[in-house]
Design a protein that fits this description.
The protein has 905 residues and is mostly helical. A hairpin with a 2-residue loop joins strand 6 and strand 7. Residues 822-842 are annotated as: Disordered.
Length: 905
């Protein structure tokens, strides 16, 4: 038996035993005004199949609706409105007169004859004073007035249901029905079951509070209801899978039922319901028969053509049909609940399943037309500045030069790098072949390659684009500005600050040629360019110039489009702070980016990942080695780690420091090499490489070689210089160490990472010279500076000379609570891993956040935490996000470990 046949078979089959049995309708001895016998089936409640699902929320709404004289149940074909109303009517204790309207009822005499017979058949007959009409074409006003008066006199109101009311399109009958409804008062409750808006003046009933409406949104099945419906069909589906089916069908009752019946015949019902082809299903048969084929040819043509669109307005529909009547047609289709949904402001969309079926039907009826429709849509949308849809339809038409031109002319090429639409745009342009030969196509290809850090191919395509965009070529400024952005990125990735400077200068000139509104629409372009410029300057060791560009980028207008470049620039500024000796300030910068990144929906870690490396380096300074390793692991798979020089050098620095403090000096030397090819040597990256090589020599008993490696380290790199001074003094070269410290110069006040290590180097030199008082004073100052930042590594790295000083009461008191747990006992060796102290930034968790964190530590699932705290799962997830943000972690295990490190657990 076919699925459709089964539906009709079920409709004639047994009803739900829970539904009250409808009394047998007595024989009808009367004929209608045409002389034809009354059709008893028109007064019968439709049978509910065994798989009918009573939805109590809708039944309750219909019960409440009895407080108003008029109820409207309005939905598309197959929305379940008739069976819902019949189920409700069968459960009423008082008479419910049911009439299924037919086209012949457009004649007033026929309609009112059937209404009177419906009242009679269901036990609410009119008196003999109400004479049935004898003329099919009209009724006496006296009949209507008498009927209304009798209804008004009733102690208990009569419920009259008019099913398929959309078939009644005669204004005369509508006016008569309104007259009776108005004058019947509380004696009549009218329920209209319809696909379209009735001609009644609904606005007046709404204003008077006399109308109850149950429309498509309320008729739609919820995910939970879909699960129950499928179970009645013998199918068991998880809630999330049922939710996906509801999304695809928009909760449309017939779509769910037809899909369920077909799925029962499948070997894998769940897979079928997930992947069924709408155009090859009984859903297609239903929609084509009930909706499409009932429309005029011109309307069918319009529906087929707009099916290629996600949304459309009358003007766009006219562009596809080459006609001018779309506005009236779309408004009529929407009023008729013909699966054309109104989005507001004259925009519409097709029901998703209807759209799928129409597209398949379009390919059968008009093969080869689809690309042309996409092309027309793309050109209309571009004129109206709807860029995302322009690109989508340009790509669907395989008009790649047009799509690339639209992207570049709109200055939107930066969106390939913002982390929001970048994945979608990359995928959209991925099929673009060599047939696209415009300069814009070259730029898009180059941007795609550079976004994937494919430098060889990206640079080659960038050169091709540059040749097409020579200064004397009449190309628009937008294309040249896009080229400048890509050149700045190429300069960043190749470590070439000179090229970055030229790109920035060129961009400044080109911006003068472009309209302000276009530049304002894409603030991400300038934010990206400044970030690339700042990164190239930072690589070259031009710290103050880098800070200027990065600060400007970080101050770009807020919003989702600039979230990623602003985060990237702030993380670069954090690295600058770290390199200048301010670890606490660096950490605060990185952590401040987390909330906005979460709001913008950026992945973690996002961007280049430099922020995670800064946090890892700070964790090493605080001797939080487990946390440092976890942060390094998070960046292990980022493509930027081997292509972006600053990222590569930052990762090399953090990894090498971690290995060094763990006693793996030779491995630290190997890890210290960024392993990137750059146009210029980075002084700070080279300085750190020298430090780790020198430390390895010293650890292996070669102090002379250790000192020799440090010859290139100068006071221009303060943190490197104090580290080098510490190695010099440890190698027995106190005077060289002091000379190096004296050469340090900073633009402002030196950071604690500089002052603490410098004080300890000078203290060691003084101690070696026998000046214990000076050494004690310097260690005291170092402890005071380090305590604010919780810098433990300088003291752990200092060696045995410092232990007697720290054992004195005054210094011991300064170290208690944050430093002493990690210090070796007198005569012992430093412990590589020790309990981590609280960070500089106080982590303040709310009481509920602490409750959630404590339960995480007990290995409870999210659902178990919610149940234990008597809150929803979503509430727990919200608290978890906040805890993760405050602890700068991404996983629950890391959150527990971090909380224990910070003594929050």
């Amino acid at each position: 038996m076919s699925v459709v046949a089964e539906i009709y078979e079920n409709a004639r089959g047994p009803t739900d035993p829970a539904v009250p049995v409808v009394p047998v309708i007595p024989a009808v001895p009367f004929a209608d005004p045409r002389g034809d016998p009354f059709l008893r089936t028109r007064f019968a409640l439709p049978a509910r199949p065994a798989t009918f699902l009573r939805r109590q929320r809708l039944v309750d709404h219909l019960d409440q609706a009895r407080e108003t004289p008029l109820t409207l149940v309005n939905g598309a074909a197959g929305a379940g409105k008739t069976l819902l109303t019949a189920d409700w009517a069968a459960g009423q204790r008082q008479p419910v007169a049911w009439l299924t309207v037919e086209v012949g009822d457009r004649r007033p005499g026929v309609f009112w004859a059937y209404v009177l017979q419906a009242l009679h058949a269901w036990g609410a007959p009119a008196s003999e004073a109400v004479e049935p009409p004898s003329d099919a074409t009209g009724v006496d006003q006296r009949l209507l007035a008498t009927l209304a008066a009798e209804l008004n006199d009733r102690d208990q109101p009569v419920i009259l249901v008019l099913d398929d009311y959309d078939r009644l399109t005669t204004a005369e009958v509508t006016e008569q029905l309104e007259f009776v409804l108005h004058h019947a008062g509380r004696g009549l409750h009218l329920v209209l079951v319809t696909r379209t808006e009735p001609l009644l003046p609904l606005h007046r009933y709404r204003a008077a509070g006399e109308l109850t409406e149950i429309r498509a949104a309320e008729l739609a099945f919820t995910s939970e209801e879909a699960v129950a419906l499928l179970e009645l069909h013998g199918l068991s589906l998880p809630l999330h899978a049922a939710g996906a089916l509801v999304d695809r069908t928009r909760g449309w009752a017939a779509g769910l039922r037809l899909s369920a019946l077909a799925a029962r015949e499948s070997a894998d019902p769940e897979l079928y319901l997930k992947e069924f082809e709408a155009d090859r299903s009984t859903v297609a048969d239903f929609l084509l028969a009930e909706v499409l084929k009932g429309q005029p040819e011109e309307t069918q043509d319009l529906l087929l053509r707009v099916s290629v669109l996600e949304r459309f307005c009358p003007d766009l529909a006219n562009a596809l049909t080459l006609r001018t009547d779309a506005e009236a047609v779309l408004a009529r289709l929407h009023r008729a609940n013909a699966f054309v949904e109104h989005l507001g402001h004259s925009w519409y969309q097709l029901h998703p399943l209807f759209g799928e079926i129409l597209r398949a039907h379009l390919r059968e009826r008009m093969p080869g037309l689809e690309p042309e429709l996409h092309r027309r849509a793309a050109h209309w949308l571009r004129r109206c500045e709807f860029l995302p849809e322009t690109l989508a339809h340009g790509a669907a038409a395989s008009d790649w030069d047009f799509a690339a031109d639209a992207l570049v002319d709109d200055l939107a090429i930066g969106q390939l790098f913002t982390g929001l639409r970048s994945g979608d745009l990359t995928e959209l342009f991925s099929p673009m072949g060599p047939e696209a030969r415009s300069p814009a196509a070259d730029l898009v290809r180059a941007a795609g390659d550079l976004s994937r850090y494919d430098l060889d191919r990206g640079l080659a395509r960038l050169r091709s684009a540059e040749e097409h965009l020579a200064d004397d070529a009449p190309e628009p400024a937008a294309a040249k500005l896009s080229l400048a952005l890509l050149e700045a990125l190429a300069a960043r990735l190749t470590g070439c600050p000179a090229l970055a400077e030229r790109a920035a200068e060129k961009a400044d000139e080109l911006r003068q040629e472009l309209p302000a509104h276009l530049l304002d629409r894409h603030p991400e372009l300038n934010a990206l360019l400044l970030t690339h410029l700042g990164s190239a300057r930072l690589w070259a060791g031009r710290f103050e110039d880098a800070r200027a560009a990065l600060t400007a980028a970080a101050g770009s207008p807020g919003g989702a489009s600039t979230a990623l470049p602003r985060e990237d620039s702030i993380e670069h500024l954090a690295l600058l702070d770290y390199l200048n000796g301010w670890p606490g300030r660096a950490e605060r910068r990185v952590l401040a980016t987390v909330p906005e990144a979460e709001r913008a929906g950026l992945p973690r870690p996002s961007g280049s990942g430099i922020g995670q490396l800064v946090l890892a380096a700070v964790a090493v300074d605080r001797h939080e080695l487990g946390r440092a390793q976890a942060l390094l692991d998070e960046t292990a798979q980022l493509p930027s780690r081997t292509r972006d020089p600053v990222m590569a050098a930052g990762r090399a620095l953090a990894t090498a420091r971690l290995l060094l403090v763990r006693g793996k000096a030779r491995a630290a030397v190997e890890a210290a090499d960024p392993a990137v090819t750059a146009a210029v040597v980075s002084p700070w990256a080279a300085g750190y490489e020298a430090l780790f090589a020198s430390a390895a020599h010293l650890a292996e008993g070669r102090p002379d070689e250790a000192a020799e490696v440090l010859q290139g380290v100068t006071g221009d790199q303060p943190v490197c210089a104090v580290e080098a001074a510490a190695i010099q003094v440890a190698a027995g070269r106190a005077s060289a160490a002091i000379d190096l410290l004296d050469s340090i110069h900073t633009a402002g006040r030196p950071g604690p990472a500089v002052t603490v290590r410098a004080a300890l180097v000078r203290a060691q030199a003084a101690q070696c010279a026998g000046d214990t008082d000076t050494a004690r004073k310097l260690v005291t100052q170092a402890l005071l500076d380090a305590r604010q930042e919780r810098l433990r590594r300088p003291f752990l790295d200092a060696g045995s000379w410092i232990r007697p000083l720290l054992a004195t009461p005054a210094l011991h008191e300064l170290a208690t609570g944050w430093l002493t747990p990690g210090l070796p006992r007198h005569g012992g060796h430093p412990r590589p891993e020790s309990p981590s102290p609280p960070p500089l930034v106080e982590v303040e968790l709310s009481g509920r956040e602490r409750d959630v964190l404590e339960r995480l530590a007990r290995m409870m699932s999210t659902e178990e935490v919610a149940a234990d705290l008597y809150v929803s799962v979503n509430t727990v997830k919200t608290h978890l996000k906040s805890v993760y943000r405050k602890l700068a972690v991404n996983r629950r295990g890391d959150a527990v470990r971090r909380a224990r490190d910070l003594r929050l657990l």
